Amino acid sequence: MSADGSSTAARPAPNSADAVDGQAAPAAATPAASPRRRGRPRIDLRRLGLAALLGSTSRGRLPDAIGHVADAHRAHHPEADLEPLRRAYLLAESSHRGQMRKSGEPYITHPLAVTLILAELGAETTTLTASLLHDTVEDTEVTLDQVREEFGAEVCFIVDGVTKLEKVDYGAAAEPETFRKMLVATGNDVRVMSIKLADRLHNMRTLGVMRPEKQARIAKVTRDVLIPLAERLGVQALKSELEDLVFAILHPEEYARTRTLIAENAAAGDPLGEFAEEFRTVLREADIAAEVHIRPRHFVSVHRSRIKRGELRGADFGRLLVLVNEDADCYGVLGELHTCFTPVISEFKDFIATPKFNLYQSLHTAVTRRDGEVAEVLIRTHQMHKVAEAGVVALGNPYDAGSDEDGADGERVDPTRPGWLSRLLDWQRSAPDADTFWSSLREELAQDREITVYRTDGGTLSLPAGASCVDAAYAQYGEEAHACIGARVNGRLVTLSTVLRDGDTVHVLLAPPETGSGPDAEWLDHARTPAARIAIGRWLSSHPEGPVVAAAAPRPQLTVESMRPAAANAVVDEHPNAPVRMAGCCTPVPPDAVTGFTVRGGAVTVHRVECPAVARMSAAGRAPVAVHWTQLDDGAEYRVTLIAESFGRPHLLADLTEAISLEGAAIISATVEPPVEGRVRHSYTLQLPDAALLPALMRAMRKVPGVYDVGRGKESAAAAQ
User: Fold this and answer.
1) Exposed / middle / buried, residue 260 (Cβ in 10 Å: 0-12, 13-18, 19+)
2) DSSP code for 140
3) Domains delineated in the chain
4) Residue of 21, 105, 124, 138 with catalytic role
5) What are 200-247's pLDDT values in tens digits?
6) 139 an active-site residue?
7) pTM, whole model, 2 decimals?
8) What stretches of 364-433 show up as alpha helix (H) in DSSP?
């Protein structure tokens, strides 16, 4: 087919939800009175169809059918070259000629409407060109090679990314696999998803000719997948209208009630108008150049407010939007409003200093007048407003030279590829089937807030709110995280189930590969990210016997006794000839600070001064006896209790006892407690040939893989005599 519009036989449009939906939904399914769209005329699809059929033009002249698109595009891009749009329209119109939508309009009205939506949002020319062509490869004889040859590689890539997979090839997996394909393409070029969102919006607007059950199915997918994607990509203008359309289909009674509330409030008068005038006066007197607009809430927003607050007052049906030129002016406006009105402190949020993960920036506040009326206020610059409405669409062509900086490796650093998208692209490769991908995608998109945690090596991890140390481990190490044995958060040892907070510093601890450690089934209870859940599930499926650690971890208490006597060399100051023995509860050795207590038979038991038994006996009125260490005799030995805290793994007990033996210490007794949340506590009573060896012994024990702390034993005070 040539670019000048010469005819080509077009195969009939397939009977798919997105390709052949209708003209207009009935009143209950289309919020035509949505306050968000007041003042914006709807495009007459029949008139567009007529213009498409009759608007043949000479070469170089813009067809009448895309006049609205051209006007909207030039409003955002005055210098834009419209020639690609002309050629794309001619190809699309000729290739779709003869295809009709279920509503009776020529099919070309659909790509025209989708392109108009994007043009109104400020999309650049390449996006609009691809939008006009987005159904040609899927529904006509046009090929990707032809698109590439006539419009270039970028347009071809975008069209390919939006093109659905055939049900004849994929069956029931066609829809999830199509979304997987689109998301992978979006990872390279966000314009793919921009077109998909606009495509779904127009299809939702015209869903009324579908059977109710099909409307509900499409609305649920829109709710679970497309609306969260619109939110994450910051395209609030599309997200809000999609929410209202879904609301009307899935909750018609609540929708009708909300619609009635909005109509009644409009008839009663809007107190926000008075607020707006007062704001303008205050800001004018403060010499701050600002625009003040009333932003009516859309249907779903009103519905949520009613559920949250109960009965709504007039000012609850909208918010005031203040637009300024510079970031600093935002804070100037905030100061003036908080000075001249009473602020509601709990409503203040600064999304300029800390933008949302979807690029959104704005100051949120609420102020009260003397009459008690409260108004919510949004304060942002014009550029922030553009991004708030259009999100990634407003960022233009991510491949333009100078649009962002290159990375250190020479590859493009794309600010529109946030952490959630990178995570999604990583875990989708591991999803074993379409059902797992589809359910995991919905779980991923259900997370509506992101946090950033810091790694001890200087890197960062973007995780959904509520993520645990398990999620951090798999986000950082992938499948190597199977060997995770613990974590430190902000320098403190924590369990793997610990929920992370924004700004935490995380250090994941891994067992050596040779230990054969693996995840526990309980890790699935702590994992919030699909990447972690898929990896853990796959490992558990391939290891039905469970992790080696669990099998090797000692369950009963293990006690080993030796009959070797303990030598004592403290001298008792007050009773120099009294028998002396070291307390078993704290096992003091030189140069510990010590004290003593007389026991039956005139013997003196020596304790470390910080031993809990000392405080207990002193409180009971027992007088301490002064003791001190003397010069050690050759061959004297000392007994000490050490507590080793570790993560469970195979052969840990053997490795610890070997480390102790290599330092020349003899084990008098050893107790290994049952593991708790993967952690094991070992208590060793040891005989040392020289008290000076104790620091080196403790260092050697700490070096054993899996051991995270070794300290002096502090047994129960009840053990003291």
Assistant:
1) exposed
2) S
3) 43-163 (1.10.3210.10), 267-393 (3.30.460.10), 449-551 (3.10.20.30), 558-719 (3.30.70.1150)
4) 138
5) 999 999 998 889 999 999 999 999 999 999 998 889 999 999 999 999
6) yes
7) 0.67
8) 382-390, 419-428
